[in-house]
Amino acid sequence: MSNEATTVQAAQATEDTAGTERPPRGLGVSLPAADTRAKTEGTFPYAADLWAEGLLWAAVLRSPHPHARIASIDTTHAREMPGVRAVVTHEDVPGTPVYERGRADRPVFASDVVRHHGEAIAAVAADHPDTARMAAAAVIVEYEVLDPVIDPEQAFEAEPLHPDGNLIRHIPLRHGDPDAAGDLVVEGLYRIGRQDPAPIGAEAGLAVPRPDGGVELYLASTDPHGDRDAAAAAFGLEPDRVKIVVTGVPGATADREDQSFQLPLGLLALKTGCPVKLTATREESFLGHAHRHPTLLRYRHHADAEGKLVKVEAQILLDAGAYANTSSDALAAAVAFACGPYVVPNAFIEGWAVRTNNPPSGHVRGEGALQVCAAYEAQMDKLAKKLGLDPAELRMRNVMATGDVLPTGQTVTCPAPVAELLEAVRDHPLPPLPKDTPEDEWLLPGGPEGAGEPGAVRRGVGYGLGMVHMLGGEGADEVSTATVKVQDGVATVLCAAVETGQGFTTLARQIVQEVLGIDEVRVAPVDTDQPAAGAGCRSRHTWVSGGAVERAAKMVRTQLLAPLAHKFGMSTELLQITDGRITSYDGVLSTPVAEALDGKELWATAQCRPHPTEPLDEAGQGDAYVGMSFCAIRAVVDVDIEIGSVRVVELAVAQDVGRVLNPAQLAARIEAGVTQGVGAALTENLRTPRGLVRHPDLTGYALPTALDAPDIEIVKLVEERDVVAPFGAKAVSAVPVVTSPAAIAAAVRAATGRPVNRLPIRPQAAVVTSGRDRLVRSTD
């Protein structure tokens, strides 16, 4: 995969340091991850690999029904099985019986009613994993099966599925003149499927009871303090008697931890007094954790005769599944960004999140924003077609810039180089057409033996413009704490920001190297004895945790430089640290950092808290978000119009990143995000007929593999620093996930002339029955 911009920077950095003894360090350098060797050698400590003396194994009994009343639960047979040490149900939860990451409404174990397929009912601890599974299956549950509510539109009229009702949140956004109308109007109905995070490693954990009656949980958590507080409440313990130790996280594209696994594990450890381990099967993983919100969207766009947007009207319905989770946040993002990165003077959006008996939905990268991006970009294509304009030209006439106002009334104060991004992908050379020869058949949709005649293949080019918010929003207190210690010439960073694959530990090392000029920097393992850093999502840790590390390092820097400044009669501001040396502005002082640190032990603790935000009001207005990032993608696809197969030939990406902190790491994050978007566009849809999860495995759920990943051309990275963000950097992972499905759908529309109003794109949506055509670009 090509990455011109970042490769040039990395090569330049290498050239600049050629012939020197000290390798490049600090920000802007492609510093490799510290855990690379351990992961490649298989010694990285994942939760599934942990062991303890006297270990027991856990298994969870889950509901086979999406909706049922529980008449009785009989655990007698399970308890009497040889090797079984404990069986727990809702009756054994000593503390708060409900939990959740957003609104606390999800029971640890179902008691009276089952609300979704796979809901936890009981858990077993035994001396062998097979015994635990057989004992869980031996728990007898009598159900009165109820009709499930699986259509979110039915949830408004259905009987309440939960004591809190079926409506989780309603946001009516009102912006501008409701009577405004355009010369042209286009309408559309769109559906977005249920994407699963599908982590590489399924959920696992180890719970170890403590002598003081507490418990330690070893988990791949991305929010250890949030998990600790929820666990302590369920266990009826004070938070200081529950400790979360973060193990290696095997990939995270969402809130990696799911408490339907964690809480039963801790309860079993407390009940048995023994360490208990749980390793979920892939089926349990699909049934237990949250998914992307399936969404129904209705849009009406008004434009004038020149293609300028006049008004956008939309209805957005999110299927939250059985419980609220983070649906309120996802709905706010969907409503706030419902018009996309375009100037829209008048907007009227209705958004709802409702409960159903479908599997729970929650935070998945780009939640809310991905769904609306697919819809508003389809609307822009419809407008372009109706006006006879090039799709890129129509978008260029409407893109927003810094200083424009969102439909929420919030002014875009951060850099918003949307026009520059669109120009970059529009002007990038198109890939060549494949040759019509047998040896090149693998280039056609479906691969070898998978496509029809080459004459049935059409090429399409489409565009997508996306935006996401950074950090949380609507008044969330985004704060992180970090400590930097220096002893014997080695710096150690203590911060509860979890490394989920986003590269925080590498960034923390680079920050300290940049500020202090110290080569050897270590990042301590994460647990809840450290101050909280918050959840690892929405690129929070680059901003708030990286900001905290920088501030702590600068405080240590002052401690280091103060004696030297005093000795030479100058302020610390007149000293600088570069290339491992401390020098003064006048050249009088020049000494190695290692020499200045000799015999010293320095440390400092600092916090980073971005400026406050506010909730959206009753009209959907408010400064709800700290900042935003933007992306433009041009997709080129080949479509077999007889069988509906789609091959993504190339995705050209331009993104505003604020500042490149690690070129190689940034390129990898963009490429991974784009590939996740390819899955959402073409293959990933967790099917739930009648509320039952169908084929909960990686055979039935089609993840894109390396063979499905297209050529990804990162054609431009706009480094216009966000002045309110530490280092000026922006979120990079979520916005390509949001944008690539919309661009791919646009390209399929261009190739086939079909509307393509559903994601993932089904083969029948790409079939054209009007006969074959030669292989051409849609723009030819």
Automatic annotation (TrEMBL):
Start-end of Low complexity biased regions: 1-17
UniProt xrefs under SUPFAM superfamilies: CO dehydrogenase molybdoprotein N-domain-like, Molybdenum cofactor-binding domain
InterPro entries: Ald_Oxase/Xan_DH_a/b (IPR000674), Ald_Oxase/Xan_DH_a/b_sf (IPR036856), Ald_Oxase/xanthine_DH-like (IPR016208), AldOxase/xan_DH_MoCoBD1 (IPR008274), AldOxase/xan_DH_MoCoBD2 (IPR046867), AldOxase/xan_DH_Mopterin-bd_sf (IPR037165)
Location of region: Disordered: 1-34
Ranges for domain Aldehyde oxidase/xanthine dehydrogenase a/b hammerhead: 41-147
This protein's name: Xanthine dehydrogenase family protein molybdopterin-binding subunit
Organism: Streptomyces incanus
